[in-house]
C-alpha cells in the first residue's frame, strides 16, 4: 500500500482541526479526525463562558462556512462577538455534524504517540516512504493507525505555564494545587462559590488575566468580601493595556481599557516586579514570594501566564523547533515576543510550518509554542495552505489569503527590528 493511499490524520476537533477537515474534504483527500474529548471542541468548552475579542467574521473558516451554508446553516452576524460556548454551539458543533465530517470524526480517541512505520527517530533509510503511525487509545483499547500525513491541531489549553518565573513550578506550587487554578476559571458561573468573599490573586499580564480580573471585580460588586489582587513581572503597566480605541478588534481594545479603569479606581491591588519563586502557607493564607518580597496573603490564586505545547506525542518524529518558542523554526522569528510586540503576524502556511519529517504539521495555537497573540483566523490560513500543499497545489499553498487586524500598539524599537516582517503598517 502506497503512503498516499492512507488518510490524513488530524489530531484535535477544535475550530482549526475541523477547518483542516473541511479543506481536505473540499480537495477530495481522505482524512480521519481524532478527538480525545466527548465532543468536538471539548477544550473550547472549558472556556465557554469567555467572550472572544474577535467577532464572528474572524472566527468562521471560509471553506467550512461554505460547506455549512450548503446544508442551510445561516452564519451569525459577522460583527457580533461570541462567547466560547456560542462558538461551539452555533458553528463548531453544526460543522462536526455534517455527514462527510461526522463519519470521519472519532471522539473519545486520544493520540498517544506519532511515529513512522518501522522507523524510530534515529532511522533514516527509506524514512520518507514510510507512512506515519499513530498510537490511538479509544473505547475499545489501543490500536495503531497509519496516515499519509499528520496535522496536529490539539492546542495548548491543557498544558498551561507554571507561575514559577524559572519556567518550572514555583516551590510549593504543586503542593497547594487545590487553591490554584490556571487559565480563565468561570468566576461568575460554576466557580462563583470558590471565589466569592475570598482574597484572590491573579498572576499574568495578558488577556486571560484581564478576563479573570474583570470577572473578579464584578463578583466583588455582588459579594463585597471579595478582594482582587494582581501580580505582573514588569515594573509598570505602561504597555499592557494595548491600543484601546486604536485596536482594530474593538473587544480586545475594550478589555484592556476596562482593566486600566478598574485599576485606576482602586478596585484592583497591583504588585509589580513579581518573579514568583515560592508559595508558602500560614494561618493567614497563601503567600507568593518574589525573592525577598512577599505579597499579601490570599485564599486563591489564578495563574494566567500563558500555555505551552505538549510535544511528547511526537518525540519519535524529526521536528525542527525553535529552542525558545518551541514553534516551527521558520515561524519563530515572526512570533517571538522578545522581538515582536505588535500582536499581528505576517500570514504564513506550509513552508513555515514544515519539518524535516515531511508531511507532519503542527497548526493552530500549538504552532505558536509558548508565544502569545494567536488569532483563530491565523490557524484557518495555516490549514488552507497546508492542505493545498498536501494536494500538490503549491501555488495555492504559497498564496497569501489573510489580512490580520492591528492592535494599535507597537514600540519603535520592535518596529525597526521587524521591518521585513511588516509587523506594523
TrEMBL record:
<dbReference type="GO" id="GO:0050660">
    <property type="term" value="F:flavin adenine dinucleotide binding"/>
</dbReference>
<dbReference type="Pfam" id="PF13738">
    <property type="entry name" value="Pyr_redox_3"/>
</dbReference>
<dbReference type="InterPro" id="IPR050982">
    <property type="entry name" value="Auxin_biosynth/cation_transpt"/>
</dbReference>
<protein>
    <submittedName>
        <fullName>Ferredoxin--NADP reductase</fullName>
        <ecNumber>1.18.1.2</ecNumber>
    </submittedName>
</protein>
<dbReference type="GO" id="GO:0004324">
    <property type="term" value="F:ferredoxin-NADP+ reductase activity"/>
</dbReference>
<keyword id="KW-0560">Oxidoreductase</keyword>
<dbReference type="GO" id="GO:0004497">
    <property type="term" value="F:monooxygenase activity"/>
</dbReference>
<dbReference type="InterPro" id="IPR036188">
    <property type="entry name" value="FAD/NAD-bd_sf"/>
</dbReference>
Amino acid at each position: 500500500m502506497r503512503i498516499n493511499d492512507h488518510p490524513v490524520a488530524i489530531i484535535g476537533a477544535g475550530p482549526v482541526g475541523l477547518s483542516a477537515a473541511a479543506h481536505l474534504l473540499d480537495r477530495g483527500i481522505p482524512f480521519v479526525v481524532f478527538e480525545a474529548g466527548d465532543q468536538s471542541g471539548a477544550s473550547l468548552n472549558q472556556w465557554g463562558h469567555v467572550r472572544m475579542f474577535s467577532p464572528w467574521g474572524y472566527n468562521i473558516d471560509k471553506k467550512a462556512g461554505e460547506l455549512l451554508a450548503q446544508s442551510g446553516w445561516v452564519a451569525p452576524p459577522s460583527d457580533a462577538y461570541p462567547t466560547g460556548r456560542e462558538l461551539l454551539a452555533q458553528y463548531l458543533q453544526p460543522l462536526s455534524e455534517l455527514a462527510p465530517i461526522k463519519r470521519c470524526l472519532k471522539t473519545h480517541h486520544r493520540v498517544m504517540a506519532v511515529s513512522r512505520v518501522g522507523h524510530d527517530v534515529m532511522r533514516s533509510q527509506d524514512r520518507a516512504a514510510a507512512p506515519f503511525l499513530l498510537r490511538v487509545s479509544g473505547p475499545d483499547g489501543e490500536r495503531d493507525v497509519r496516515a499519509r500525513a499528520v496535522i496536529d491541531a490539539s492546542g495548548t489549553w491543557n498544558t498551561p505555564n507554571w507561575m514559577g518565573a524559572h519556567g518550572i513550578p514555583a516551590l510549593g506550587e504543586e503542593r497547594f494545587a487545590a487553591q490554584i487554578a490556571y487559565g480563565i476559571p468561570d468566576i461568575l458561573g460554576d466557580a462563583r462559590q470558590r471565589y466569592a468573599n475570598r482574597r484572590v490573586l491573579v498572576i499574568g499580564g495578558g488577556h486571560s488575566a484581564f478576563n479573570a480580573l474583570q470577572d473578579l471585580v464584578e463578583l466583588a460588586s455582588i459579594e463585597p468580601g471579595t478582594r482582587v489582587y494582581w501580580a505582573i513581572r514588569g515594573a509598570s503597566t505602561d504597555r499592557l493595556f494595548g491600543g484601546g480605541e486604536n485596536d482594530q478588534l474593538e473587544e480586545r481594545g475594550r478589555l484592556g481599557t476596562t482593566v486600566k479603569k478598574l485599576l485606576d479606581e482602586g478596585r484592583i491591588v497591583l504588585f509589580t516586579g513579581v518573579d514568583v519563586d515560592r508559595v508558602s502557607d500560614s494561618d493567614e493564607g497563601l503567600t507568593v514570594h518574589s525573592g525577598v518580597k512577599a505579597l499579601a496573603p490570599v485564599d486563591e490564586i489564578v495563574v494566567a501566564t500563558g500555555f505551552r505545547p505538549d510535544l511528547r506525542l511526537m518525540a519519535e518524529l524529526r521536528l525542527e523547533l525553535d529552542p525558545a518558542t518551541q514553534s516551527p523554526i521558520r515561524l519563530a522569528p515572526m512570533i517571538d515576543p522578545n522581538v515582536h510586540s505588535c500582536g499581528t503576524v505576517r500570514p504564513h502556511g506550509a513552508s513555515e510550518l514544515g519539518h524535516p519529517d515531511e508531511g507532519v504539521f503542527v497548526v493552530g495555537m500549538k504552532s505558536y509554542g509558548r508565544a502569545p497573540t494567536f488569532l483563530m483566523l491565523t490557524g484557518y490560513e495555516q490549514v488552507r495552505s497546508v492542505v493545498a500543499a498536501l494536494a500538490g497545489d503549491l501555488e495555492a499553498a504559497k498564496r497569501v489569503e489573510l489580512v490580520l487586524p492591528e492592535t494599535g500598539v507597537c514600540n519603535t524599537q520592535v518596529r525597526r527590528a521587524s521591518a521585513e516582517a511588516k509587523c506594523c503598517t
